Recover the amino acids of this structure.
């Protein structure tokens, strides 16, 4: 078999056999197939798609490219969640300790930023010393001792996805239903959770732009997960505007910390309660979503979730001083609030443009392995549907220098659309599957 023939088959829309998919994934994981050939194949998949059989074979081969964890030696039932990627999406930072605080173990492998969407692992690294590279033994040990662990893509678990993920990030090959489904589900299958809630985003700041595409992605992932005996549900939510107020690694960590202490933006808090609620429902701790959300809201308001978050961050090596005093988290030298240039209702905040501006400010990567700036980003003071008077604070920029400040200010002012008429706040949760 030759790599070039596999690329040509996918380019010509001829399905790969199971043996060819195995050869392809094993070869790329071992390093026999170079990045440039893998990138060409990913682009062929973006353009032509894969059959359901190919997508399942891709997922299973990626899951089996490393260790397959059996968590039952640690806990009888472990839950996990995964987002398809969005802007301002700090959900894991709240949901993981919230669910663990209720006594349901959460074992999770997360990713770094991908394209214009942020990544949990980058956000967690805002804490000095936070360890995201855990061996399998360390992963299991954390889960056993603390009921919670979030690791980065380790060399041991789904290493094929680790390589593809970093490559897709910088080759414009993220937006593909089968590649996203395989990437997410391979990690989920390898890291051994019994139940998985998929946080599927739809809109301008998501990789799926229509509800129909988001549903197709959710259904594909649910089918793959159920096919290997896992309980799976999907929450489809709006990502036309950023989630919450903050976009940027340390800024999002601070917003998550506020939410864990009973505050935080209303849309973000409700989103966390919905995702966590589905997790505890699947885990048998609540009869329905509404009961689950009521139970979980108490844990946000009474300090239990916050205490679990602190325990987790410290256990994975994070700096306790930054937990107690968030001003010690990375911060940008320029912090300036931009006022509304006019009055009216906010009709739109283009989440993709916000995400891309955040990357251009230094908060994400332009190419594989680029360093990122944890302190930079944006905090919005208004959301779609809000009425703002001219001169009121619109957003605050946290920039590393004057040039990026000016660039970000111009791009973000252009990313906001206005209306003279009242605009209804758009619904956030659009559909729940499973
Ligand atoms: N999240 C992932 O883990 N993989 C993708 O491809 C997209 C979002």
């Amino acid at each position: 078999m030759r790599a070039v023939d596999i690329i040509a088959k996918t380019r010509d829309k001829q399905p790969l056999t199971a043996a060819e998919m195995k050869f392809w994934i094993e070869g790329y994981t071992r390093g026999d197939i170079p990045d440039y050939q893998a990138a060409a194949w990913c682009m062929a998949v973006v353009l032509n798609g894969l059959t359901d059989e190919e997508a399942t074979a891709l997922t299973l081969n990626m899951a089996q490219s490393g260790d397959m964890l059996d968590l039952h030696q640690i806990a009888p039932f472990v839950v996990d969640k995964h987002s398809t990627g969005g802007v301002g999406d700090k959900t894991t930072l709240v949901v993981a300790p919230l669910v663990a605080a209720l006594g349901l173990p959460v074992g999770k492998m997360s990713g770094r930023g991908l394209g214009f969407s942020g990544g949990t692992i980058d956000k967690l690294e805002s804490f000095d010393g936070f360890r995201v590279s855990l061996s399998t033994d360390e992963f299991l040990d954390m889960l056993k001792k603390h009921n919670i662990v979030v690791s980065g893509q380790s060399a041991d678990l789904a290493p094929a996805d680790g390589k593809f993920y970093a490559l897709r990030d910088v080759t414009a090959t993220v937006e593909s239903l089968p590649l996203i489904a395989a990437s997410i589900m391979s990690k989920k299958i390898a890291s051994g959770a019994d139940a998985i809630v998929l946080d599927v985003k739809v809109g301008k700041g998501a990789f799926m732009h229509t509800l129909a595409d988001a549903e197709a992605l959710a259904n594909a992932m649910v089918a793959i997960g159920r096919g290997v005996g896992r309980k799976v549900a999907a929450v489809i939510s709006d990502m036309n505007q950023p989630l919450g107020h903050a976009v940027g690694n340390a800024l999002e960590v601070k917003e998550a910390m506020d939410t864990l202490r009973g505050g935080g933006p209303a849309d973000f808090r409700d989103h966390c309660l919905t995702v966590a609620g589905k997790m505890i429902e699947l885990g048998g701790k609540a009869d329905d979503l509404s009961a689950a959300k009521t139970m979980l809201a108490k844990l946000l308001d009474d300090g239990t979730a916050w205490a679990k978050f602190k325990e987790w961050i410290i256990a994975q090596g994070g700096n306790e001083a930054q937990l107690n005093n968030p001003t010690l988290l990375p911060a940008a030298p320029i912090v300036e609030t931009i006022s509304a240039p006019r009055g009216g209702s906010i009709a739109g905040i283009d989440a993709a443009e916000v995400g891309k501006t955040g990357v251009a400010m230094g908060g994400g990567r332009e190419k594989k392995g680029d360093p990122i700036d944890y302190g930079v980003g944006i905090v919005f003071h208004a959301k779609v549907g809000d009425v703002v008077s001219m001169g009121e604070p619109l957003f605050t920029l946290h920039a590393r220098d004057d040039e990026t400040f000016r660039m970000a200010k111009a791009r973000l002012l252009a990313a906001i659309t206005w209306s003279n008429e009242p605009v209804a706040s758009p619904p956030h949760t659009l559909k729940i599957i499973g």
